[in-house]
Each structure stands twice: as structure tokens, then as C-alpha cells.
Amino acid sequence: MAKRAAGFLIFRRLCERIEYLMLHAPSKQYQWTPPKGHVDPGEDDFTTALRETSEESGYTESDLKVYRNQSCTLEYKHDKGHDKVVVYWLAELRNPSQQARLSEEHQDMRWLECEDAIKIAGNDDFAKMIRAFDVRIKQSELGEP
After folding, report:
1. CA-to-CA distance for 72 and 91, rounded, in angstroms?
2. 3-95+107-138 — its CATH code?
3. Beta strand pairing status for 83-93 and 3-14?
4. Per residue in 3-58, pLDDT tens?
5. Alpha-carbon span 18 to 13, nearest angstrom
6. Any idea which UniProt keywords this protein has (predicted)?
7. What is the mean pLDDT of the segment spanning 103-125?
8. In terms of DSSP bridges, do strands 36-38 and 3-14 run parallel, antiparallel, or are they unpaired?
9. Helix (H/G/I), strand (E/B), else coil: 44
10. What is the pTM of this model?
């Protein structure tokens, strides 16, 4: 059975740029991802995304404009050999100058434009997802949060 995780692809609008929050976990030298984490027993994906985002970045639901109609599910083989399913919702940081508060799970964070986020993520499925979201944001096709 695939292990489930959920999180938010958080973006901000800053000086005519769209930037995405990427976090770096020290246990995985080359892995940069948006805030996400494992779904706990009895927890739904959206609740997990809220909890993990708060734990990993310090951003709570009130800090974000969550587009529940904008989600993407990535399925892949984890480097430990098991199948993994990750659901991401798109969320905009309400105050673009609000700083993230990193958890002990992460050693660094960056706000990056789409192509730079793709370079450090190094994952083809992530690249497809973020590019699709980036187009929707720039074309104002998000709908209501």
C-alpha cells in the first residue's frame, strides 16, 4: 500500500514575481520540497497539509489563501522502495513579507521562481505540477479560495 503525504505549494507575489516556498531537509542532501508530511492515522489529507505546513514553516491557515479547487496528486516510487502518494494544494501567502519559521526538520528555505524551484527539486512530476500552477496563477485562473 502506498504511503500518503500532503502539503501546500505556497506562493507569494513579490515585486511582479511569483515565488514558491521550498524547504530543505538535512537528512536528504539533495531534496527540496514544499511543506508536506505523512498522513497520520484517522487524519484526512487536507488536515495533514495544514498541520505539516504549520509545523514545518510556521504558516497557519489564517496566513494562507488556500485554493482548495487547485490540487495535484503526485505518485512515485520512494527511494526506500515503497510507493508514495503526495497531494498538494495551492496556497498563497497573504502577507508576502511574512517570514517562515523553520522547524528542526529543515535546515534551509528559499523563495524561488518556478524554474529555479524546479532545478532544486529535481523531480519531473513536481516540475509538471509547478509549471501548471504557475500558468494558472499568471493567467488569473485560480477561482475562489
Report:
1. 12
2. 3.90.79.10
3. parallel
4. 899 999 999 999 889 999 999 987 666 679 999 999 999 999 999 999 999 999 99
5. 5
6. Hydrolase, Nucleotide-binding
7. 90
8. antiparallel
9. coil
10. 0.92
